[in-house]
Amino acid sequence: MTAITHEDTLRELDVAGRTLRYHEAGDGPPLLMLHGSGPGVTGWRNFAGNLELFSQHFRCLVLEFPGFGVSDATDQHPMAAALPAVPAFLDALDLDQVAVIGNSMGGIVGARFAIEQPERVSRLVTVGGLGRSIFSPSPGEGIRLLIDFTEDPTREKLVRWLHSMVYDPAIVTEEMIEERWAQATDPETLAAARRMYGRGVLEGAARAAEASPEAPYWALLHRIKARTLITWGRDDRVSPLDMSLVPMRTIRDVELHVFPNCGHWAMIEQKAAWESTVLAFLTRRD
């Protein structure tokens, strides 16, 4: 089998005058893969290690959200820009329906897309981050460290945040640190991060949510029609496991799989077990 590389899989589309970049690998039913947030994140860094397996069964489409340094920048809040990017991207590829895997923020975007356009999501897989804290303090430790880095980016703060993402610190290699540092300190990427994780922005968003008559997304999860698999690291310090309780109870057709000795990146830290679980779910007959 030919090795799957960054360069060979990279594609781009012009959507409403902006460039969306993505990685494509494999043939078969379309599988949309949505990355999380955080310093130096990209879809490739979240899911590159999983493409070898999933591309044997699916046409894998790893979308790079606007504002994270790969697709075009955005002056919007990154979450606000991410949600409309999904249907625009699928329309540009003439795809009516896809299975979706979303990590953290990507899982929230995938869930919101499944709420708003349920006919377009055949199955939904999330990796941590979906729901709301029930017993744990909010925001979690990893989010607080992310705020610290965003407000005053230093290499030391980046390393501290990266260690909060994993159970095994050996996963945080020098190569990972350098790649993340280069991406995270790009001026446009850093500006987008501050629109999402600046302390004042988060405090303002919390006040706005309290005053808003609109229900938060986690209160609408019962509208998801797609079969859903929630995956979580037992030792997640970014989005603690108790966040899964609301989606586990309210999504109609949902399963929860928890991986031991695992932080926020289950698809990386428990790669083989996570891939086996997700592949079985995605390929199971109705």
From TrEMBL:
It comes from Nocardioides massiliensis. Keywords: Hydrolase. Residues 29-269 form the AB hydrolase-1 domain. The lineage of its organism: Bacteria, Bacillati, Actinomycetota, Actinomycetes, Propionibacteriales. It comes from the Bacteria. Pfam families: Abhydrolase_1 (PF00561). Its EC number is 3.7.1.14. Gene3D superfamilies: alpha/beta hydrolase. It is an enzyme of class 3 (hydrolase). This is 2-hydroxy-6-oxonona-2,4-dienedioate hydrolase. One of its GO terms (molecular function) is hydrolase activity.
